[in-house]
Amino acid sequence: MRIIEAEDELRTAVSAARAAEKRIGFVPTMGALHQGHLSLVSAAKRECDLVAVSIFINPTQFGPNEDYDKYPRTLNEDTKLLAGEDVDLVFTPARETIYPEGCSTWVEVEGLLTRTLEAAQRPEHFRGVTTVVAKLFQLVAPDVAYFGRKDFQQSVVIRRMTHDLCYPIDIQVCETIRDPDGLALSSRNQYLNEKQRQQALSLSKGLFAARAMFEHGERHGDALHVAVQAVFDEYADVSVDYIAIVDPETLEPLETVVDRCAVLIAARVGQTRLIDNLMLEN
Amino acid sequence: MRIIEAEDELRTAVSAARAAEKRIGFVPTMGALHQGHLSLVSAAKRECDLVAVSIFINPTQFGPNEDYDKYPRTLNEDTKLLAGEDVDLVFTPARETIYPEGCSTWVEVEGLLTRTLEAAQRPEHFRGVTTVVAKLFQLVAPDVAYFGRKDFQQSVVIRRMTHDLCYPIDIQVCETIRDPDGLALSSRNQYLNEKQRQQALSLSKGLFAARAMFEHGERHGDALHVAVQAVFDEYADVSVDYIAIVDPETLEPLETVVDRCAVLIAARVGQTRLIDNLMLEN
User: Fold this and answer.
1) Do B166 and A110 touch (CB under 8 A)?
2) Across the interface, do B100 and A163 touch by the CB < 8 Å criterion?
3) Active site amino acids of B
4) How is chain A split into domains, by residue range?
């Protein structure tokens, strides 16, 4: 496994792979890797000839009062995990490679996709995400890129950006990986103490409650919402940011679910903000 | 010479060229081609193995009261001219290829580069330009792209965008081509009647007046500005938008020129808005 920091070296490696007609799979990450990330790597290993993983904690997707400074930095552990998965190439760019001096270009998806849900609390978040992903896509030039379903809105926004900017890249969204008790894996779970970790189960429990109702035929957005809220009512220390029943592509709230919906939740447990979601389909 | 409208066909042609290790040169245009465009094509022919020219009148770089509807559409003449230059590939994308349904992604350079000069009158212009160029760069995937110096600010903005987004594309800016009397070639010169064409000479005359002073040692921005304005004072029917003496990279106004400056002019002759510029260097 090669660990590459320099842009030139990356381009040489990618060009060689392309010349050899290798299918290149790419998993962009901010490090602090867990089984969720590794499931993306596994999918890439199955479907591609060369798998590249980037590790870059992107400053522009953190808000001014968010956790950029304390975000877990675990490069040694991360590279060991990736070597264990037989990843071909780990790209760890310097900040100046991604944001060169005088850098002032932004890639931004406009409209509801980046105004609703996460964006209400984090107005600059998605333009940070789309800008860094656009650059990483240029640098790695993959055939396929893998994202986790857990960051549902992010995957919708990136799919839109990729399509709109004519990137010839297939976006694969892989299912959320959960601990046995239901908690969706997240690098931010590290922030939780034991008591908070129990409270954090409110998110997945809320989603599972909605799923149970959906499986019993409930198709009213309001009713599904109430079912999720009822779970949170039992967790006084958890502060809900939003519970939303939306169209999975447009993110428009649904009064009535026809074929499918996404149930999205964001909540704070202590200082830690967590998100989770579930797709419900006929 | 192949004329290609479909994205798939373009990608196939470009991939084949790349597999054959051909250096790809790209000249993006809005058609209505003149010798200025053809000089870009010549440069590309000299330096590259495959030359692609795009013809696409980009709606998003026109303001609501600008000339999108009446912009000259001369595809037959354009392709004849390009065939005469032995261009390999002309890309004439449909609007939906560049702006697919639901398209909502913008590429935008922020800061002074896109707030000053042209942007004062045309606030949305440059984000239209950078967005379409970013897409065309993805589709054509050239090694080198050629732009005309006449659109000075555009070339600075595109260079910034290309660098910031990590496009592995060399941006070449080619000198402005002028008629023998000094008028910079522009597709919009077609709008001028004979009398207006004489008035339009005010722009190049103003620039040449500044150059003459510069060659005699004048280095004060104000004095160069006054010299240009003095020329326009003799053209009562020409309405000046701006005369600016700026740093060629940052576009900051210069009180005193050290090594070099760009003199930029925009003016209206009748309904036609024209721009021109000159680099002055020690």
Assistant:
1) no
2) yes
3) 37
4) 2-174, 187-277
